Amino acid sequence: MTDAIKPLFTAHATATGGRNGHTRADDGSVEVNLSVPKEMGGPGKPGTATPEHLFAAGYAACFGGALDFVAKQHKKDAAGATIKCAVSIGPREKGGFGLAVALDVTDTSLPRAELQALAEEAHEKICPYSHATRGNVEVKVTVHGS
Asked: Hey, is 79 helix, strand or coil?
């Protein structure tokens, strides 16, 4: 069962040519050429991206915003946190392909235990990417505080 939302903003993008094509946000804010990486049997053209690159960049930015939001609620500052996101793709046991995500959260201005609690709250309660992947994509969150 899905949880209905009240849309505040909607992004639109169009892709042509699939994984060896081109994708562009309708407002021109994001535009990239795509190619299947050599590791997956593709051409791995230099200067191109994959859908996993785009997902990783979006998830990292979104999680950083969620972490900062949660920190502010607790009268903390996580605006300087660095979020690294790795998105892996591979064959699933049940067929087809699936994703796995690793989020690496670093903020040395906060004690590790505090950062861990903030990251868990951001992951469980706030981040829409975390909500979208929950129960469907393995997401590992690792934190590095002071």
From this structure: coil
